[in-house]
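Course assignment 3, question 2. Fill in each field.
Student: A.L.
Task: Predict the tertiary structure for the chain below.
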Amino acid sequence: MINQQLIFIDIDAHTKEEVFEYIAKVAVNNGIVNQTSIIIEGLHYRESLSTTGMIDGFAIPHAEVADLKESVVIIIKLKEEIDWESLDGEKIKFIVAMLVDKDSKNKEHLTTLSTIAKILMKQENRDLLHKANNQEEIYTIFEKLL
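Answer field:
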């Protein structure tokens, strides 16, 4: 589910809203969905239930979206940390976003989301990801851990 082409480094976003807009644009530009608004609405809805800001600078925003061509993980490492209402109160710099088909009977995404959350709970994994400086390094880390 991790695609190296959907890993982005040093993204200049200053708010959670700008991150959601970036995720939506990536999804449209890669033919995953036709409209940015459906992604942004889905991410906002999920965030309204409870924060997706984890700990130590990581967030895992996710949304179930109608008319999605395929479920994807989009990974973003920001240039600067941003506010996100994280569980530890710290700012966020690393986003692992997941978009899944709302109508899919396949619930594989729940396993993937759980696995990603477990990976991010381990300090040594967070440290590796924070130190990674390019797409290939981040991709390799996730491939080894998933």
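Instructor remarks: The chain has a mean pLDDT of 93. The CA atoms of residues 5 and 51 lie 27 Å apart.
Grade: pending
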